[in-house]
């Protein structure tokens, strides 16, 4: 069969099946959208749920699954909430967006703002944003402002700007305190249920500003209330040890490496995250940088999944609890991987195996490989 015939058949199949729906269309019944909400999209959502057989066997959890959110348009889960927040901002007549960020929110806001022809201002903690994330925001044309005082200081400055608006520069805040962010992010829980045919037994997730664990819990609740699933999972949240304000009795210290990326002293969605933990009989625990980086390496080497280092906190936490006998090893467990590995090229470079020098011949390559 000629290639032109193959392409013709594919087009016919697509026309019969209809175009792939946008995220805001697919879950319209569960989202606060109306006739004034534009169907904005960069192709967010529809991320894979992968059965991690090799890694699961290695840590003693054979039904381990990975929700790979790094396959969203800007490489992180933030796009799910951002598309709704920006669409609602457009529907309300806004012409500019503003956010505080340690990187992923900035990249997402900048991309969706550019797509919607909105001005974007991102306020970042000086020296605490990975290169990949900062470059994304800059490439999309956002106006980047660096401040001292970490993420909490950046968010405080942004909230002050919103609370005392300048009529010459009207802006919409698109941090996770914007309720539309949580509403959009909960769609990942819907996809998990659809892929599994029901809710998992456990949902493990990294916790930074705590919006995502809140969103997933809301999503599982919405599907159960609609009669689409019968159960909700036990929620397991994991924070880097140097950035663990939600872990009871844990003293937050100066962050190092991974913890730096998610250092938030006062998570905006902290109370809601604690409710998700308590209502699900779950837990929020700390994992060390070493445990996170071990999981980060194993995800790539066992499963071929290159995630942002902080994303691997979910797998590190499950491995830790499984070793302690604190979770059912035969249960269906979903670990959320929140971002793509290219978000943090510096860590990737440090952790990568070095190249082996060889002469440009088969014999030279064999010698280099020790064959």
Q: Specify Rg, calculated over alpha carbons.
A: 21 Å
Q: What is the domain total for the residues? A: 2
Range of strand content: 5-15%
Return the CATH class of the largest domain: Alpha Beta
CATH topology of the largest domain: Rossmann fold
Which whole number gives the mean pLDDT?
A: 89
Order of strands, widest sheet = 1-2-10-7-8-9
User: Could you give a short account of the major beta sheet?
Assistant: 6 strands, mixed
Supply the CATH architecture of the largest domain. Answer: 3-Layer(aba) Sandwich
Shape designation: globular
Q: Helix share of residues?
A: 40-55%
Q: Please give the number of β-strands.
A: 10
Count of helical regions: 16
What is the structural class? alpha/beta
Order of helices and strands: HHEHEHEHEHEHEHHEHEHHEHHEHH
Termini separation comes to 42 Å
Write up this protein.
With 371 residues, the chain is α/β, with parallel strands linked by helices. The protein folds into 2 domains: 28-75 and 181-351, 3-Layer(aba) Sandwich (Rossmann fold), CATH 3.40.50; 78-178, Rossmann fold (3-Layer(aba) Sandwich). Helices cover 44% and strands 13% of the residues. The chain is built from 16 helices and 10 strands. Helix 10 (211-225) links the parallel strand 7 (202-206) and strand 8. Helix 5 packs parallel to helix 6, helix 8 (179-185) packs across helix 10 (211-225) and helix 10 (211-225) crosses helix 12 (270-279). The two termini are 42 Å apart. Mean pLDDT is 89; it is low at 249-256.
């Amino acid at each position: 069969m000629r290639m032109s015939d193959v392409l013709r058949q594919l087009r016919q199949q697509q026309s019969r099946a209809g175009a792939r729906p946008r995220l805001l269309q697919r879950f319209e019944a569960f989202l606060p959208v109306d006739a004034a909400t534009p169907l904005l999209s960069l192709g967010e959502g529809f991320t894979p749920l992968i059965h991690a057989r090799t890694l699961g066997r290695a840590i003693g959890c054979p039904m381990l699954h990975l929700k790979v959110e790094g396959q969203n348009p800007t490489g992180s889960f933030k796009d799910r909430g951002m598309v709704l927040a920006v669409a609602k901002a457009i529907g309300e007549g806004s012409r500019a967006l503003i956010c505080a960020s340690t990187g992923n929110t900035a990249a997402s806001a900048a991309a969706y703002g550019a797509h919607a022809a909105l001005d974007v201002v991102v306020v970042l903690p000086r020296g605490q944003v990975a290169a990949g994330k900062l470059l994304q925001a800059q490439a999309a044309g956002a106006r980047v402002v660096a401040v001292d005082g970490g993420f909490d200081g950046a968010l405080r400055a942004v909230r002050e700007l919103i609370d005392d608006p300048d009529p010459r520069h009207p802006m919409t805040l698109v941090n996770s305190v914007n309720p539309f962010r949580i509403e959009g992010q909960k769609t990942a829980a819907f996809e998990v249920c659809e892929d599994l045919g029901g809710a998992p037994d456990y949902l493990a997730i990294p916790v930074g500003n705590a919006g995502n664990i809140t969103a997933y819990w809301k999503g599982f609740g919405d599907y159960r209330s609609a009669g689409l699933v019968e159960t909700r999972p036990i929620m397991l949240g994991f924070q880097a040890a140097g950035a663990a304000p939600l872990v009871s009795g844990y003293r937050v210290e100066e962050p190092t490496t991974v913890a730096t990326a998610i250092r938030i002293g006062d998570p905006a969605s902290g109370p809601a995250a604690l409710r998700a933990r308590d209502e699900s009989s779950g837990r929020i625990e700390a994992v060390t940088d070493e445990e996170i980086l071990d999981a980060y390496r194993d995800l790539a080497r066992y499963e071929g999944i290159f995630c942002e280092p902080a994303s691997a906190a979910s797998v590190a936490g499950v491995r830790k609890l499984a070793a302690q006998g604190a979770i059912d090893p035969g249960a269906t467990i979903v670990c959320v991987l929140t971002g793509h590995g290219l978000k943090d090229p510096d860590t990737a470079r440090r952790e990568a195996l070095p190249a082996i020098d060889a002469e440009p011949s088969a014999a030279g390559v064999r010698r280099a490989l020790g064959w």
